[in-house]
Amino acid sequence: MASGKEQEQQGFKQAKCVKVHGPIIVGAGPSGLAAAACLSQQGVPSLILEKSDCIASLWQQRTYDRLKLHLPKQFCELPLLGFPANFPKYPTKSQFISYMESYASHFNIHPKFNQAVRKAEYDRVKGIWRVQTEHLEYHSRWLIAATGENAEPLIPQIVGYGKFKGTILHTSEYNSGSKFKNQRVLVIGCGNSGMEVSLDLCRHNAIPHMVVRNTVHVLPREMFGMSTFGVAMALLKWLPLRLVDKLLLLVANLTLGNTDQLGLKRPKTGPIELKNVTGKTPVLDVGALSQIKSGKIKVMEGVKEITKNGSVKFVDGQEREFESIILATGYKSNVPTWLEGCDFFTKDGMPKTPFPQGWKGENGLYTVGFTRRGLLGTASDAVKIAHDIAGEREAAKESIRSCNSHVIIHLDHDGAK
């Protein structure tokens, strides 16, 4: 009987092999599209493998209807092609999808859809990456992991989870609050998604209770008529990070008031520093805070358990009944499920090397979309990767030309003799 390792090798051998002359890119979201576009500009072909049936599947299939970009469009552009001039400052979900589709069309990007990568591994003997899908095995000198940090829903462990009698769903399955009219809904999570879902539920006459398990920074989306993020980026060019954080919090307290009194306690670390260190994004308020102040969105402490009768018990001793629970608990990387034999990533599927150097691993491995800095980080990584791979290809061609030139000279000398 064959050993486990032998069976794996046989599995690779049984698949039909396809040689790819450029990098293999795993994922056709914004990160994969950006990498492919930048490579194309450098004259480098690439192949995108996408497990779903469309580009930007997170946006198309797993986002709620009222979603808009939280940052102005100039901070969310992919390399080489900006948003249409007639798009609003904060594009809607449908507008962002339209931009992604136009981007792919403009750069002639055609991913292979319904190609879930089961396994990717570096073959040290042949010096290639072997990437296996259900029916095919692709070989390339380079592999770009572009599945990003938001590949799969993150589902928390809740004691008594299976005892709840109502509906439980992750925000990836949430479309609109219209299905929850007049319901008491528990929203677990108070990030941008948790706040927006709670706001959406209010507008559809539901009764949202939002769980705040940890500290959170809430900032106004705009200050002085400008994007808060834009103001922060401008100030960081001239002032130390911690001073910029203090200025942001000063304005936030003046415009929003003391959020601690609402059950939204601020972390001791400033919003930008916290984002850089942990990846935790500050909430940019788009109206939820006023609903919290009015009592329409009720702030709750952490969930202790779901009891045997299906009600929810909180850490402060309260116990309440709800018709539905919505998990606004974010997403996680799925790299550990398909990338093997590589210690470049942590067990959570994030590069061990911090930004801005986490885009390049060993043996032709690259990552894009793992910076915890949104689409700005994606764009930065994509440009670096394209330049690096183009440089390697040119160096290889130069080496071949040099060898050929050497051979010709030797032949000429032999002929002269």
From TrEMBL:
Uppermost EC category: oxidoreductase
GO MF terms here are:
flavin adenine dinucleotide binding; indole-3-pyruvate monooxygenase activity
Q: What does the record give as cofactor?
A: FAD
Q: Which UniProt keywords apply?
A: Auxin biosynthesis, FAD, Flavoprotein, Monooxygenase, NADP, Oxidoreductase
Could you list the residue ranges that cross the membrane?
none
GO annotation, biological process: auxin biosynthetic process
Q: What Enzyme Commission number(s) does the record list for this chain?
A: 1.14.13.168
Which catalysed reactions does the entry list for this protein? indole-3-pyruvate + NADPH + O2 + H(+) = (indol-3-yl)acetate + CO2 + NADP(+) + H2O
* Pathway stated in the Swiss-Prot or TrEMBL entry: Plant hormone metabolism; auxin biosynthesis
State the source organism's domain of life. Eukaryota
Q: Kindly give the InterPro entries that the UniProt entry links to this protein.
A: Auxin_biosynth/cation_transpt, FAD/NAD-bd_sf
- Keyword Methyltransferase on entry: no
A single GO cellular-component term from the record reads:
endoplasmic reticulum membrane
Q: Which family does it belong to?
A: Belongs to the FMO family.
Spell out the protein name for this chain. Answer: indole-3-pyruvate monooxygenase
What is the protein's species of origin?
Populus alba x Populus x berolinensis
